[in-house]
């Protein structure tokens, strides 16, 4: 049955004829996700699809039998896959109709309640299939059309969804209703700042969604910031940590949607001041996220995605709230350091190293965990010392370059010269913090050549600077390092083999001539704007060199070596050009003479 025949059946207004036609269409198109690319054919099909959409919406305004109602919504779901033909569904009337069938419509009435709105009552026995189909249709429409998102904001759909999310503990809503509620909330908050703010402020989104995540994962709270899984017993005599059963796919899917919504509404939380109530909510959420990091799913891919969303959200939390990662008591099988439970920190480190070893999309996959470790190490002494023990153990290998090897330190030092500036800077910052922002210690572990980028950016090329507030550490130099310290090349960070002196056997005049050749080459490159001569300023940062700087350098050269440099500095640009042209002419003449001799030899 083609579209024209289906439309004819719909136009009769008969429910049975419409039901049969729509069921035939839905069965035929259920797996269709791509649409025709021929412009003329697409234009014709688009008109028919829009007409069918208008007729279906008209049917939904009537009192329909449940099977016909479901068929109409299935048709809208299929039609809304085509982003070019959603026009019938983005009006206020159409969106209101769909939201009413989804059970999230609100009406502005005279009922006294916060915000002056009241939810349209749910049916005593709601048809969950109808609700799911309506939610899927609204998700498709909002995904493809920004006007629909604005209409959703006008209709206050976020309020209706939040009201049902509060009922997360009730059994009447199945997985699909809960999942598509969350998916629609994510789509709305991802595209409208106003709805993010409304969910965060008016609807107390952090607490609302934290409670929903708590209920989804089935958590229990042995202590204020210590989280467990309900039904999982811990054996106090066991030396192994309690094995948490993997989370089902349905729970993981809902949990990831919650994490994505929370990420949307907390994107600026670590860049603004939070009050005491907000800080408490964030710390509660942080404790749940720690549990997420220690949990797994049935499938490895789901586990990695779940951990990725958890890490992204942790990076949004205020730094002062990250101490909840260290709060759980040390138990049998836990990783303990300085009396603190380091399970979460160790998991973050292992996660970061795995992403580093893969080497793909480092900016998206590795930086969130690396940034989180950097900030945690900056504010928590125990975390920094634990990470330093893992990443920068006492230095013993002084014969290889810092970037050579398979240790985590070697891998991170290699990142310090990565082509991606963000990756390079984050790796350097992490190691710099582990060195307590000490320039000498940083150079010791990375070499001056690798460290120069960060030091130049911070104006620390001369050393010194404010090392920040860090505790004192005991001397960590190994015997191997102390013995070789005087022989280590600070630029490369290793003991170099003795190299022959390239100027050995030269007279002073020859040395001076080679030096002037180098000066002339740099001068030529500078005048051609190929390079920009730089010098180290008094503040430790790099600054441009000018003629005055060159004269000051000349004055510092011993008197006997100034003659040629002085002559070079006094040459005007025009004189230099004339001199270069003269030299070029001489070279051309010599080449021509040599070429003529070769030609004459060939003739003879």
From TrEMBL:
Main location as per UniProt: cytoplasm
Annotated region (Disordered), positions in chain: 560-604
Subcellular location: Cytoplasm, Cell cortex
Flavoprotein among keywords: no
Classification via InterPro entries: ARM-like, ARM-type_fold, Chaperone_Ric-8_A/B, Gua_nucleotide_exch_fac_Ric8
GO cellular component assignments: cell cortex; plasma membrane
Keywords, sorted A to Z: Chaperone, Cytoplasm, Guanine-nucleotide releasing factor
Low complexity composition bias: residue spans: 565-578
Pfam families attached to this UniProt entry: Ric8 (PF10165)
Any one GO MF annotation of this record: G-protein alpha-subunit binding
GO biological process, one term: G protein-coupled receptor signaling pathway
SUPFAM superfamilies (UniProt xref): ARM repeat
Xref: Gene3D superfamilies: Leucine-rich Repeat Variant
Oligomeric form and interacting partners: Interacts with some GDP-bound G alpha proteins. Does not interact with G-alpha proteins when they are in complex with subunits beta and gamma.
Function statement: Chaperone that specifically binds and folds nascent G alpha proteins prior to G protein heterotrimer formation. Also acts as a guanine nucleotide exchange factor (GEF) for G alpha proteins by stimulating exchange of bound GDP for free GTP.
Family: Belongs to the synembryn family.
UniProt-recorded name of the protein: Synembryn
